[in-house]
TrEMBL record:
Entry similarity comment: Belongs to the OmpP1/FadL family.
Subcellular location: Cell outer membrane
A Pfam family that the UniProt record links to this protein: Toluene_X
Lineage: Bacteria, Pseudomonadati, Pseudomonadota, Gammaproteobacteria, Moraxellales
Keyword set, alphabetical order: Cell outer membrane, Membrane, Signal, Transmembrane, Transmembrane beta strand
Organism encoding this protein: Acinetobacter chinensis
InterPro entries referenced in this protein's UniProt entry, alphabetically: OMPP1/FadL/TodX (IPR005017)
UniProt-listed SUPFAM superfamilies: Porins (SSF56935)
Domain of life: Bacteria
Protein name, UniProt field: Outer membrane protein transport protein
Membrane topology: Multi-pass membrane protein
């Protein structure tokens, strides 16, 4: 069986579209497959996502079509792995693990004629520096530091967020009309975390297995907040509608489990499992939190402990399985099926889907044994979801229903062995 050389060929054909539309803010899938390649290795890739996410508001919000609220986006990745000695290796991996890009443009539940639309944009970047120890050909123990940056912008508009638009804590009444809601500019912050893992391989049968843990990372971000028409009662005084303060945002811990094995001549089977701890993730900026604590005590809102800007009820679990085949010395390909659990339902109106099923195809061309070009495509069938605003979290209240949505992801990667 021609499996020893096949082990490298097929895994390289896997494309950077693995987590392109995963639950919550998950985006890249945080693979370390490049670090586990034999010898010295470099790769660079880019993934592009074209989603279509739309829904209909509930009767209380006018039974209106929301229009497509999910923006197209792309994210790059790169990796350099050096085999320093027979027993030690070093790697640098770059990816953009978490993100969001969405804007509502139609329904009055999410828009305001003079003040704009509900929108969200979140960007993160990761630089993972890994050291590996290989006591034998079969084992690899590795760990290292992770440098991460995060920034973003959020705007809340329309009747779905009117609880933030005109409530006056002294008068104690909720607004009867849609007023400007809330703006937050999350300044870029950097922080560090860590990862650790172990891998096992039997090259003669193209078997590889690895498990990788990534820690949560705490960010102390400066957030500029504006609540245009809301006077917030704080310590007995009415505060200004604009403030700049510090808030902690903790990106979640995760575990990746990867496996592949030869199943017949020129063919391998592979699988990936991923867990992300979204259940413990929440964002409650300072000024927003003060407003939420006051507003939540109103019987109409009925959130006595306040509420978060974004939060999730469940952890995310995702899985991908597939087969790869080497057609000849220059061509290889793969086919895969993926599933994602989502992070709970109802979901936030800022990301109104619950998990997915996907199918993917990849093709790799190797002009020479030491480098390749690979491309691929995945089709995502996005899960139906009920969407709610932050003030409705952990209640049965919802704003809109999102059904029959999908997305296409495209990937391109180059790799070089030296």
């Amino acid at each position: 069986m021609k499996l020893k050389a096949l082990s490298t060929a097929i895994i390289l054909a896997a494309l950077p579209t693995a987590g392109a539309f995963a639950a919550a803010l998950d985006r890249s899938g945080q693979s370390i497959a490049a670090f586990l390649q034999p010898g010295n290795y470099f790769e660079a890739g880019i993934s592009v996502l074209d989603p279509n996410v739309s829904g209909t508001t509930n009767a209380a919000y006018g039974n209106q079509k929301t229009g497509d609220m999910a923006g197209d986006y792309y994210f790059p990745s790169a990796a350099l792995k050096l085999q320093l000695t027979d027993n030690f290796s070093f790697g640098i991996l770059y990816d953009q693990p978490f993100g969001a890009d969405a804007e509502y443009t139609q329904s009055t539940a999410f828009t305001h004629s003079s003040q704009g639309n509900t929108s969200v944009e979140v960007d993160t970047q990761n630089l993972s520096m890994i050291v590996g120890f290989q006591p034998t050909e079969n084992f690899n123990f590795y760990g290292g530091g992770v440098y991460q940056t995060v920034k973003g912008n959020v705007a809340l508009r329309g009747s779905a967020y009117s609880v933030l638009g005109g409530y006056h804590p002294v008068a104690g009444a909720l607004p009867s009309t849609t007023l400007p809601g809330y703006d937050a500019k999350i300044g870029e912050d950097s922080a560090v975390g860590w990862l650790a893992g172990a891998a096992f391989q039997i090259p003669d049968i193209a078997l590889k297995a690895s498990i990788t843990y990534r820690s949560e990372i705490d960010h102390k971000v400066a957030i500029e907040e504006t609540i245009p028409s809301l006077a917030v009662l704080s310590s007995g005084a009415i505060t200004a509608p604009y403030s700049k303060g510090q808030t902690t945002i903790t990106t979640p811990q995760s575990v990746n489990l990867d496996f592949q094995t030869g199943v017949m001549a020129n063919t391998v089977a592979f699988a990936n499992l991923r867990w992300v701890n979204w259940k413990d993730f929440a964002i409650r900026p300072n000024e927003f939190g003060q407003a939420a604590n006051v507003l939540g005590k109103n019987p109409t809102v009925n959130q006595p402990k306040g509420f978060d800007l974004v939060a999730y009820t469940d952890d995310q679990i995702s899985a991908t399985v597939g087969v790869g085949r080497k057609f000849n010395e220059k061509w290889a390909g793969n086919a895969s099926v993926g599933w994602d659990s989502g992070a709970g339902n109802p979901v936030s109106t800022l990301g109104p889907t619950e998990g997915y099923w996907n199918v993917g195809l990849g093709l790799q061309f190797s002009p020479a044994p030491n480098y390749f070009i690979a491309g691929g495509v995945k089709y995502f069938m996005l899960g139906d979801a009920d969407a709610q605003s932050g003030s409705q979290f952990n209640t049965k209240g919802t704003v809109a229903e999102f059904e029959d949505n999908d997305a296409w992801a495209y990937g391109l990667k180059i790799g070089y062995k030296f």
